[in-house]
Amino acid sequence: MIKALRGTKDILPDEISLWQRIEAIGRNIFNIYGYKEIRTPIIEEASLFIRSIGDATDIVQKEMYVFSDRGNRIIALRPEATASIVRAYIENSLFQAGGVAKLFYIGPMFRSERPQQGRQRQFYQIGVEAIGSDNPFIDAEVIALSARFLECLGVKKFHVKLNSLGCQKDKIRVIEKHKENFRPYLERLCETCKNRFDKNVLRIFDCKEDSCKSIAQNIKAESALCDDCAEHFEKVKVGLNAIGVEYTIDNKMVRGLDYYTRTVFEITQESLGAKDAVCAGGRYNNLVKELGGKDTPAIGFAFGMERLALALDKAEEVKNARCKVNTFVAIAGDALYNEAFKLLDSLRMAGISSEIDYDTKSLKAQMRKAEKLGVKFVIILGEEEFKSNKVVLKDMEKHSQEEIQLDKLIAELCSRPGLEHSYTKKVVDR
Ligand code: HAM
After folding, report:
1. Counting atoms of ligand 1 from 1, which one is nearest the CA of 257?
2. Edge-to-edge strand ranges of the sheet holding 327-332
3. Strand pairing partners for 304?
4. C-alpha distances in Å from residue 38, one per residue of 83, 85, 427
5. Would you say the CATH fold of 325-429 matches that of 13-166+225-318?
6. Which spans in 219-286 are helix H?
7. Are strands 354-356 and 327-332 parallel, antiparallel or unpaired?
8. Measuring CA to CA, how many Å separate 201 from each of 48, 64, 197, 254, 390?
């Protein structure tokens, strides 16, 4: 039997309402904050990611899916979306509209990582990018948006960690300081980190090897922000304080992608453990220029949707909000099958979700099926009642039933709690 590839997953109908909820609430709040959706291709030239994420990063070194196509072009499955969006911003001259280009995206990303809970090879991200301003209040807006999104979803017990890496010159100074800090331990580092020591010493802080982790823990945090970057960081904090977004400063946070400058942040959530971030982001003030555009500052974030779904799955109110079928049409006697089929269609056309048992068995078996679906009402078509144009409406929650005139059924259902949003008028007009 052919199975899904390791690290990939089918999102099954039972789980999908959770995903749709994340997407709907995301689209809504991003729109409120002025972000418009962008969809970029899943495949890009591999060089786009090598140049932006950095050739010494884990993503580029060992996690990127790269292949050459029939024209011998070197193609990558996108490991993240920021680089693609910056490419699209430059290629489509989105800067011409002036101001800040505020974009959001939802889609699959690919990284060949060791699969585990909340870590997959194909995973989904939902994120935003604000391209065109270095104003620290944009940083505060973007960070606040990520926290407000979680609040709207009903995710609790999350924690925003904040740091500033400074500008390119500051980053170089920090790298030099850390080289001196790690030099005495060089021999005790793993082979990958020995290599990182030369190429990008900050990556050592991300190493998952126990020996490297214990060395990194004892290295003191280095901050070498120039006056401008220090002032920018202070203003980000002022902005966040002004609107009551809680955060803690973590000046050992370095992030796994090289394009970051100045503000970086991560959000962890209690049910996922402190190790795995549900959201991460930051400024990348040099990336647009690096990829051939004008000097344009930018900032953004991405949530891992599997991790969001894991955090949400535990929230009781979300479980209860899962969408259900509202009504079930049951038939007492095969002769009424055609009438039942017509009624089913009318209910659906009126916006009332409805089911029927196509393998008609006994009325008892149909009732069991209705119960399993968790419907609010069962409409029973019995031969005697139908002769006088009536059906039996059974309220499954109240355990009561009544006879109802067939032509009044839909209006009656639409007046019941939970079904009042159905499109009564449309059917009454028909
Ligand atoms: P990232 O930290 O590489 O940043 O990923 C962002 C989020 O995607 C992570 O915090 C995590 O929730 C999720 N994620 C990453 N890898 C996996 C995986 N293998 N399986 C499941 N979830 C995963 C970025 O991708 C940046 N582009 C974020 C950004 C946007 N920075 C600025 N703008």
Report:
1. 3
2. 354-356, 327-332, 377-382, 390-395, 400-405
3. 125
4. 13, 8, 37
5. no
6. 227-242
7. parallel
8. 23, 21, 4, 10, 78
Q: Is 307 in the pocket of ligand 1 (CB under 6 A)?
A: yes
Whether the predicted model's global pTM rises above the 0.85 cut: yes
- Is the separation of the CB atoms in 80 and 109 below 8 Å? yes
Which residue from 90, 52, 85, 49 is spatially nearest to 295, judged by alpha carbons?
Answer: 90
CB atoms within 10 A of CB 273: 10
Distances in whole angstroms, Cα of residue 371 to Cα of each of 75, 326, 368: 51, 11, 5
Q: Nearest-CA neighbor of 301 among 323, 271, 279, 284?
A: 279
Structural domain spans, the chain: 13-166+225-318, 325-429
* CATH code that applies to domain 13-166+225-318: 3.30.930.10
What is the predicted pLDDT for the residue at 183? 92
H helices of 219-304, in order, are 227-242, 287-290
Q: To which residue do tokens 């966040």 refer?
A: 240
And the tokens for 62? 């060992």
Our answer on whether the CB atom of 306 is closer than 6 Å to any ligand 1 atom is yes
Which pair of structure tokens corresponds to residue 22? 């994340």
**Going by CA atoms, what residue is nearest to atom 20 of ligand 1?**
119
Token pair of 293, please?
């555009």
User: Do residues 175 and 201 make contact, with C-beta atoms less than 8 angstroms apart?
Assistant: yes
All residue ranges of the chain with pLDDT < 50 are 424-430
Half-sphere exposure for 295 (CA within 13 Å, toward CB): 1
Is 301 near ligand 1, meaning CB less than 6 Å away?
Answer: yes
Residues 6+ apart with CB under 8 A from 2: none
Strand-pair category, 327-332 with 377-382: parallel
Chain segment 144-160, per-residue pLDDT in tens = 999 999 999 999 899 99
* Residue 62, C-beta contacts closer than 8 angstroms, at least 6 positions apart: 112
At residue 175, the pLDDT reads: 87
Helix (H) or strand (E) holding 305: helix 305-313
Whether 79 is in the pocket of ligand 1, judged by its Cβ within 6 Å, is no
HSE-CB at 37 with a 13 A cutoff on CA atoms is 10
> Comparing C-alpha atoms, which of 223, 246, 228 is closest to residue 136?
228
Residue 251's DSSP bridge partners are none
Q: Give the atom of ligand 1 at the shortest distance from the alpha carbon of 79.
A: 25
Domain 325-429: give its CATH architecture: 3-Layer(aba) Sandwich (3.40)
C-alpha to C-alpha distance for 323 and 195, rounded to whole angstroms: 52
